[in-house]
Write a structure and sequence with these properties.
Radius of gyration: 21 Å
Strand order of the largest sheet: 2-8-7-6-5-3-4
Shape: globular
Strand content: 5-15%
Number of strands: 15
């Protein structure tokens, strides 16, 4: 008799952002005359940089000619084209990190790799995740039936939990700058985590999807800036927020050759997994991505990143004027605020939607420590962000 994976029955009935979307759609249906501003989902709004579009157009032309046409990608599909790998290696070199081409794996995005990387680990491993946490870290481990231990991220530690020597974990999830809280680890803090993982022979899964928002030189943009990290960490990166690829889909994961467990190279395991289960990222997409980390590409994406940074500053200034506590807003596109007057997260969601026609994300959807908090994103247009802040300020000044 066929049996299902009953671990799926342990998941929440609905994914957080699907619930937000349904509630927003229901409100708009009931109030079609209302102009609802969404500062909830972390989706970008600016178009691709011109240098990226030009590279993709050229790649499309390549696909139209027999002599330049491309079929399956190189090296059993699990790596990227040379020009893309070279540009990624260059971006790391500018951060003071030296990598080998064989350590970089191109994918269709960080979210996929965050879930798929678990294929190379036993279901018997204990997983350590922060609370609040990006839901994918939890849900993908629930699907595999792993034991999940939560570390408390809270206002007292600035939503940057540090290791508990009394807890033994095999897989450790870190995200910096963090989604949802916007908090970011310093190199010194990451060194403590690296030492903790090395002592326990654990592996850190380091989500660096938002590293290009970091401007503070004291903060790490890659965990490999920390000594010893290449022996214990896998870094997962994305072009989605860096270069506006949410609708294009491209990312990359670094699995160092030095990362060995039980005498087995995790680099080889991941290469084997990808070559079996993944047919690679399209040539057109990869050529667009290869243009991102060129000199001109970085100049152009910096303009877009600065646009979103200014939106974050607009939101932060609004909260400052309202005397509302928050993290993020600097070195991050996310602002994590304490709900005013002790309101619960979903109650504040409804209050803000119904009275200001502004949508954010309830913190409780990211875990129990998120209750009483709320996430806003800086990825809207400058105009809608300013208008949303005007509405929020007008509403909350009355309370």
């Amino acid at each position: 008799m066929l049996k299902i994976n009953s671990n799926f029955l342990n998941l929440k009935d609905s994914y957080l952002f699907a619930t937000v979307g349904k509630k927003t759609a229901a409100y708009k249906k009931e109030h079609p005359e209302k102009d609802v501003i969404r500062l909830s989902i972390g989706d970008v709004t600016l178009p691709l940089a011109p240098v990226v579009v030009e590279a993709m157009h050229k790649a499309v032309d390549d696909m139209s000619r027999r002599e330049t046409f491309k079929g399956y990608g190189p090296d059993q599909y699990c790596y990227g084209y040379e020009s893309l790998i070279r540009s990624i290696l260059g971006s790391y070199a500018r951060k003071g990190v030296q990598l080998q081409p064989s350590e970089v794996f191109v994918s269709d995005g960080a979210k996929s790799d965050c879930g798929n990387i678990l294929n190379i680990f036993s279901g018997e491993n204990t997983v350590l995740v922060p609370d609040p946490v990006y839901p994918v870290y939890v849900d993908t481990n629930v699907m595999d039936g792993r034991n999940i231990v939560y570390m408390n991220a809270n206002a007292e530690n600035g939503f940057l939990p540090m290791p508990d020597e009394g807890v033994n974990a095999d897989i450790i999830y870190l995200c910096s700058p963090n989604n949802p809280t916007g908090a970011a680890y310093s190199r010194e803090q990451l060194k403590v985590w690296v030492d903790y993982a090395l002592k326990r022979n654990a592996v850190i899964l380091y989500d660096a999807a938002y590293e290009y928002f970091v401007t503070d030189k004291s903060l790490a943009r890659s965990i490999y800036e920390v000594e010893g990290a290449q022996q214990c960490a896998i870094e997962i990166c994305s072009y989605s927020k860096t270069a506006g690829f949410t609708g294009v889909r491209c990312g990359y994961t670094v699995v160092p050759q030095a990362l060995v467990r039980e005498g087995v190279s995790l680099n080889k395991l991941w290469a084997r997994r990808q070559s079996t289960k993944f047919n690679g990222v399209s040539y057109v997409t990869q050529m667009g991505a290869a243009a991102v980390f060129t000199e001109e590409g970085e100049r152009q994406i910096s303009e877009n990143l600065n646009y979103y940074r200014k939106n974050a500053q607009t939101i932060a200034q609004c909260l400052d004027e309202l005397d509302i506590w928050y993290t993020g807003g600097k070195n991050s596109p996310y602002i994590w605020l304490k709900c005013p007057n002790g309101m619960e997260s979903w109650a504040f969601f409804d209050y803000l939607l119904e009275n200001a026609n502004v949508v954010g994300t309830p913190g409780s959807g990211f875990g129990k420590n998120g209750e009483g908090y709320f996430r806003l994103t800086a990825f809207g247009s400058a105009e809608s962000t300013r208008e949303a802040c005007r509405r929020i300020k007008a509403l909350l000044e009355k309370k």
